[in-house]
User: Which sequence fits this backbone?
């Protein structure tokens, strides 16, 4: 606004008197006798112009200053609020949010900050849940081991091979939990190596199923079936990691199927090969479906941890499949069983 006023004043000062002189000459050409009064007219014009320009500068500057002040306050106020809220956020109040603004750019900034705040709040809540779950998981075996050791030390528990076997089982459970946590941590940080290669998935499925078939005897009310088409295409995957996923899914299916059938099938889509592991076990409630792949989650938190595993296996499966370019899904029906299915990218034909 100041530059505009200076430009107006400068141009007017240079050009306006000249135009006034031209106007006087035109009036003289029309038989108006103003030649003797030209000097006085010029002086009067310049004085009037100077006063008008002075008031224009004063009023224009005041208006520009007032508008600038109002606009500055309008812009600075949400920024001040944002600074205050970021200070609250840094102090630990992760629920603080920046209010919406009627200025489009600041409103977009507010939305971005609030989205970041929600993500950080979610990460912090997951961290707290992880610490709480891990503490809960470690407390049970540690309490059992301590109780056995105290009983052995004061003689209330007999010093027998069976007792030492119980201690070994509890320490093995602790070791399994620590190993699973370490592997999950590497997976989430993308530090676990994945060696992709062309894999004959049919052969791998047959080997894994043959291994589990030894756990089912003739009197077992459960059956394990592998049903594949004549020719399955190869996939691009890490065979060791896919075997780990299959072992985990089949172990869960056998653990939670007291009677019935566990069936493994494979279907092909345009770009992926899908492996389905279906059972007729206890299933899971539909409301629990979104939490199936969460760490330490169990459909029944009170069930025995020997039968329930560490609660990390499905989270590891999900991450392993995703790192190999696939996805994992689950279809469940309470009391009728569940079907876990994961995909792997097809190998390009050479």
Assistant:
């Amino acid at each position: 606004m100041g530059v505009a006023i200076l430009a107006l004043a400068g141009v007017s000062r240079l050009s306006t008197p000249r135009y006034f002189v031209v106007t006087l000459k035109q009036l003289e050409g029309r038989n108006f006798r103003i030649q003797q009064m030209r000097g006085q007219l010029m002086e009067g014009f310049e004085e009037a112009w100077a006063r008008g320009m002075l008031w224009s500068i004063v009023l224009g500057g005041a208006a520009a200053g007032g508008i600038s002040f109002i606009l500055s306050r309008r812009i600075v106020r949400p920024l001040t609020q944002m600074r205050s809220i970021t200070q609250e956020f840094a102090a630990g109040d992760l629920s603080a949010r920046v209010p919406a603004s009627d200025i489009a750019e600041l409103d977009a900034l507010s939305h971005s900050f609030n989205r970041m705040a929600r993500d950080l709040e979610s990460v912090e809540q997951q961290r707290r849940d992880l610490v709480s779950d891990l503490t809960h998981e470690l407390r049970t075996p540690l309490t059992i081991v301590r109780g056995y050791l105290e009983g052995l030390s004061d003689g209330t528990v007999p010093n027998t091979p069976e007792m030492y076997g119980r201690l070994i089982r509890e320490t093995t459970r602790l070791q399994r939990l620590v190993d699973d946590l370490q592997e999950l941590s590497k997976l989430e940080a993308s530090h676990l190596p994945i060696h992709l290669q062309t894999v004959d998935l049919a052969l791998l499925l047959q080997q894994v199923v043959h291994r589990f078939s030894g756990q089912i005897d003739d009197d077992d009310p459960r059956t394990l079936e592998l049903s594949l088409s004549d020719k399955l295409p190869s996939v691009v995957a890490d065979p060791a990691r896919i075997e780990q996923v299959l072992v985990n899914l089949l172990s869960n299916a056998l653990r939670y199927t007291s009677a019935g059938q566990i069936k493994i099938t494979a279907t092909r889509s345009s770009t992926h090969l899908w492996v389905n592991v279906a059972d007729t076990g206890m299933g899971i409630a539909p409301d629990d479906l979104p939490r199936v792949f969460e760490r330490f989650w169990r459909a029944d938190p009170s069930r025995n941890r020997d039968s329930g595993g560490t609660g990390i296996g499905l989270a590891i499966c999900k991450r392993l499949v995703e790192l190999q370019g696939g996805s994992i899904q689950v279809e469940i029906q309470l009391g009728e069983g569940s079907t876990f299915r994961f995909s792997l990218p097809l190998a390009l034909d050479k």
About this structure: The two ends are 71 Å apart (CA to CA). The chain is about 60% helix and 15% strand. Confidence is low (pLDDT under 50) at residues 301-308.
